Amino acid sequence: MMKTLLTSIAAIALCISTHAADITLDGLCYNIQQDGTLKVVSANSSSSGGGSIEIGYNNGYSGEINIPAAVEWQGTTYTVTTVDEYLFLGDNQITGISLPYSITNLGPTPFANCPKLQYINVAPDNERYSSSDGVLYNAAMDTLIACPGAKSGSFEVPASVKALATSAFYGCAKLTTISLPQSVAYM
């Protein structure tokens, strides 16, 4: 518990000291968007405000990340809808991610090349995304978006999948075989 508390305090300090976020709560940093929703951003820099994210390790997050559907801050409740475009790309510290029903935008390569990532779970009532066995799909399950980098052995892409996102298996070095159904029309 002490380690978790210290990690949260460190993340808050990073957000405050770099002006990377408008809101910091429970170890996550957020920017308020023009439409009044929230975007999860780096704890170490502002990717949307002219700063940069060091892909691979320096986003300020580690372990299991549980993104909430809403955040209450100074008397206002904000809906969390977006994860910054390249926030977790190449991250070698996160081990799991849980996305709420409210997430509608993850960007083009949300979890590519994350070698310790064991699962991506999506709330069942999310209208844009879904997950099965820890793998991220669109809601219709006809596009495989991201396979966690720590997945190992053989992986069989479900028959419902018609397309693979550009970086769906990027960094999945522990997979020995990937079986594709004939329904996959393009990659």
What's the short story on this structure?
The chain is mostly beta strands and 187 residues long. The chain is built from 1 helix and 14 strands, in the order αββββββββββββββ. The chain is globular, with a radius of gyration of 17 Å.
Write the layout of secondary structure elements.
Layout: H1 2-18, E1 23-25, E2 28-32, E3 38-41, E4 63-66, E5 70-73, E6 76-83, E7 94-99, E8 119-122, E9 129-132, E10 135-138, E11 143-146, E12 153-156, E13 163-164, E14 175-179
Parallel strand pairs: 3-6, 4-7, 7-8, 11-13, 12-14
Antiparallel strand pairs: 1-2, 2-3, 5-6, 9-10, 10-11
Q: Residue-averaged pLDDT, rounded?
A: 84
Number of helical stretches of at least 4 residues: 1
Q: How far apart lie the N and C ends?
A: 44 Å
Give the neighbour order of strands across the main sheet.
Answer: 1-2-3-6-5
> What's the order of the H and E elements?
HEEEEEEEEEEEEEE
According to DSSP, the number of beta strands is: 14
Q: Ranges with pLDDT <50 over ≥5 residues?
A: 1-19, 46-53
Structural class: mainly beta
Outline, from the CA principal axes?
globular
What is the rounded Rg? 17 Å
Question: Can you give a write-up of this model?
Answer:
9% of the residues lie in helices and 33% in strands. It is mainly beta. The strands form four sheets. A five-stranded mixed beta sheet has the order 1-2-3-6-5, with helices on one face. Strands 9-10-11-13 form a four-stranded mixed beta sheet, with no helix packed on it. The chain has a three-stranded parallel beta sheet with strand order 4-7-8, with no helix packed on it. Strand 9 (129-132) and strand 10 (135-138) form a beta hairpin. The longest helix is centred in the N-terminal third of the chain and has 17 residues, at 2-18. The protein is globular, with a radius of gyration of 17 Å. It starts with a helix and ends in an 8-residue tail after the last strand. The model is unreliable at 1-19 and 46-53 (pLDDT under 50).
